[in-house]
Amino acid sequence: MRFPSLRAHAAITVAVLAAGFALVFFYAPNDADQGFIQKIFYLHVPLAVCALAGFLVAAIHAIRHLRTGDPIHDARAYVSIHLSVIFGVAVLVTGSIWARASWGKWWVWDEPTLVSFLIVFLLYATYYPLRYAIEDRDRQARYASVFAITAGAFVPLNFIAVRAAQSLVHPRVFATAEGGMPPKMWVAFCACLAGMALLWTCLVRFELAAKAASAKLSRLRRALEGESYVASGSRIAPGAPSRAAST
Amino acid sequence: MSAFRAILGKDLRVELRTLQSVPAMALFAVTTFVIFRYGLDRTTLGGSLAAGVLLATVLFAAILAINRLFVAERDEGGFDVIRLAPVDATALFAAKVVALVVYLLVLEAIAVPIFAIFFLESWAGLAPLAGVLVLADAGLAATGALVSSIAANSRARDLLVPLLLLPLLVPLVIAAANAAEPLLAADGPSYAGTGKWLAILALYDVVFLLVGYAVYDFLVED
User: Fold this and answer.
1) Interatomic CA distance for residues A69 and A63, integer angstroms
2) What CA–CA distance (Å, rounded) separates A12 from A38?
3) How far is CA B101 from CA B22, B193, B199, in A?
4) How far is it, in rounded angstroms, from Cα B28 to Cα B66?
5) Is B105 within 8 Å of B134 (Cβ atoms)?
6) Could you read off the pLDDT of B103-152 as tens digits, one per residue?
7) Tens digits of residue pLDDT in B5-59
């Protein structure tokens, strides 16, 4: 499969997201119960869907990493989890704003989807301390993949348990009395979901490209400076005398 | 199978001779009951409060054992021996899960009667509660052995176990607490919805035992 260049991908993402939000504000009708605030649904739900899908994508990359041992799959799993965690923060913030507007409280424990998402988010937040507590590169990648697979199995289980434990008061936008959302809302929602999915994939590709570029840079540096070059995470401070000039 | 038996036998023998995990867990559990007695300012507990106190106590006591589960393997080179020996690493996982279940059962055999004496008015729910606890122990042991094995080979061992384990155990706690709540009700046990929660507990056990079985090789291989 051939992907479009990163630049084209980013341009398509911007266009689809802009079109999606234009549909949300000028085409989709206001919700009869909740009024204007229901518009946050078009941001909150696509973010949540992309974040959860991203966690599952990470689990698939992790399985491929363990099967093949190719570090590229580990990098993909890492970047997927990284971006899904960032999306997850946005989901929790927008969900909390929506809860405040709909029910008058910033946090509602009776709301299974929000609570499940919090638990999943807390689990994935431990991915970073786990990864950086292991020094050996190979072992770090392998253990991170084991974690990504375990957590991927955890996501659906957690949703089952939390949903079973609570009364259903979450706004069922998909299944109202009239048998679902009006078609105009569906169109806007699908456009936003597509835009958000494009944004997620675009950011994944961007971060992978950045990682590949910095790896290539340190390889070139090593080739240029030989054994004296020590790879460091931070960039050389501007104004500091460069190694090449001092030797 | 013989590797499994050998590792399990070794672990249980070491525990019997050194007594380093289970007595500490039991002592910790009883002290935690006292803490809850004053933290909640209650002399009797029933329903959801009783289930929550009991499960939280068992869970935190389990973390003590899970922290130490692979200490011998790491410090005395047990991991290297498993790698050298012509046996499946899964035998190590299975043996550790069973050892942990045994520790937890012994702990509960001590802690639950003390809990009942301290807090419960009606003891009729204790027999069915044992079934809930056995299912919860299996899930706790499956995730515990997996997390302990990950943490044993990292720098921040004692920090990582609770950090990784607690969020993983949330669905288990939800299901076990909801199953135990009607059994521990102050006015005698009832069985409302117990079947559904036991099914979720069993699903949790099966999923994480299978995940552990599938990925464990990669935690030992080097």
Assistant:
1) 10
2) 26
3) 11, 25, 19
4) 14
5) yes
6) 999 999 999 999 999 988 888 888 889 999 999 999 999 999 999 998 88
7) 988 998 899 889 988 889 999 999 999 999 999 999 988 888 889 999 999 999 9
Contact B171 A146 (CB under 8 A): no
Q: Tell me what percent of the residues of chain A surpass a pLDDT of 90.
A: 39
Mean pLDDT lowest for which of A188-192, A243-247, B134-138?
A: A243-247
Please list, in sequence order, all residues whose beta carbon lies within 8 angstroms of the beta carbon of residue B216, skipping any fewer than 6 positions away: B89, B90, B92, B93, B146, B149
Task: Locate all alpha helices (DSSP H) within chain A, ordered by sequence.
Answer: 6-26, 41-68, 71-103, 112-125, 127-132, 137-165, 183-225, 243-246
Q: What is the pLDDT of residues A68-104, one digit of tens each?
A: 988 899 999 999 999 999 999 999 999 888 888 888 8
Whether the predicted pLDDT of A178 surpasses 50: no
The whole-angstrom separation of Cα B72 and Cα B55 is 28
**Count of the separate structural domains present in chain B:** 1
Q: Do A157 and B204 touch (CB under 8 A)?
A: yes
Q: Exposed e or buried b for every residue in B131-166, given b needs 16+ CB within 10 A? A: ebbebbbbbbbbbbbbbbbbbbbbeebeebbbbbbb
Strand-pairing partners, residue A31, are A35
User: Considering only CB atoms, which residues of chain B are within 8 Å of chain A?
Assistant: 143, 146, 150-151, 153-156, 159-160, 163-164, 167-168, 170-172, 174-175, 178, 196-197, 200, 203-204, 207-208, 211, 214-215, 218-219, 221-222
User: Domain limits at B168?
Assistant: 2-220
Q: Do A134 and B153 touch (CB under 8 A)?
A: yes
Q: Cα distance from A65 to chain B (closest Cα, Å)?
A: 11
- Structure token digits, residue B50: 């009783």
Percent of chain A, pLDDT > 70? Answer: 84
DSSP H or E stretch at residue B152: helix B126-152
